[in-house]
Design brief:
With 295 residues, this protein is mainly β. It is 0% helix and 52% strand. The strands form 4 sheets. The protein has a 16-stranded parallel sheet that branches.
Length: 295
């Protein structure tokens, strides 16, 4: 179900360009403010309004296996039941071969499982040069009603490059300012990205990533948000069995994982970020790093 198109089928000739939808869209699964199920290409489009569903629900697209470029969403995206799954500000679930570039969401997002400010779940796809600014929160207050919640992506099994999230994030388990959980696999990567929102929950809470699992990699990233929870809490990551390189989180009281911890002053000092590519990053004294061309 989509505000403009129900399903955009596969094919190089299938395209949606320079189009938009406004108003409310609701249903059960594969619900999108613009397109319910996108298997083709969407370029320079937007959606405004409230989108609500139980699964695979997104402000622009519910289910995506195609390409989305230079598109955006404003409004609100809601999971309508306690077991609502794959809820995202732009896309509910983006699967193998999908690509999202130069896009953003400012929508307020809430759901139960795999909930993200931009994408609920990214599986073997790519997000590049994109961002989310809305608050992201869980429905309910138990371990099974707030798992894998992230400011950009709830559950990651793909690649994020040169992207960021600024919204506050809250839930129960696996909660991150950028990503709730970065799952196992050598194809799972987060590069040149950051998060600034505050993050709160109970278990496995990280300023950037809640849990970074075996085989997944975080490179040249940072987080500055305040983190709070009960167990496995870190300014950068709450729990880590993966690989982390040249990445930092704000040093703060109450954290149990101090990996990559830096003071606020250090995070505003260019020399802290030795080895970061200045073609990608703007590094200025007394300021946090910014991604060039994306702020």
């Amino acid at each position: 179900i989509g505000g403009l198109v129900g399903v955009s089928k596969s094919g190089h000739h299938v395209k949606i360009n320079n189009s938009y939808a406004t108003g409310s869209v609701s249903g059960s699964g594969e619900i999108g403010g613009l397109v319910g199920d996108n298997r083709a290409t969407i370029t320079k489009c937007y959606a405004i309004g409230q989108v609500s569903g139980v699964g695979r629900t997104g402000g622009l697209v519910g289910q995506n296996t195609g390409r989305i470029d230079d598109s955006y969403v404003t409004g609100q995206v809601l999971g309508t039941k306690k077991r609502s799954t794959y809820i995202g500000g732009l896309v509910g679930r983006s699967d193998r071969g999908s690509r999202i570039t130069d896009s953003y969401a400012t929508a307020k997002v809430s759901g139960t499982y795999s909930v993200g400010g931009l994408v609920g779940q990214l599986s073997r796809g790519t997000i590049q040069s994109s961002y989310a600014t809305g608050t992201v929160s869980a429905i309910g207050n138990t371990q099974y009603e707030g798992d894998f919640i992230g400011g950009l992506v709830g559950s990651l099994s793909g690649t994020i490059q040169s992207s960021y999230a600024t919204g506050n994030v809250s839930g129960w388990n696996h909660i991150g300012g950028l990503v709730g959980v970065s799952k196992s696999g050598h194809h799972v990567k987060i590069n040149n990205s950051y998060a600034t929102g505050n993050v709160s929950g109970k278990l496995i809470i990280g300023g950037l990533v809640g849990e970074n699992r075996l085989g997944s990699t975080i490179t040249k990233c940072y987080a500055i948000g305040r983190v709070s929870g009960l167990y496995e809490i870190g300014g950068l990551v709450g729990k880590n069995t993966g690989r982390i390189e040249n990445s930092y989180g704000k040093q703060q009281r109450g954290t149990t994982n101090t990996l990559g911890a830096k003071t606020n002053t250090e995070l505003k000092t260019p020399s802290t970020f030795t080895g970061w590519d200045t073609r990608i990053w703007k590094l200025t004294q007394n300021q946090y790093p910014k991604l060039k061309g994306l702020n």
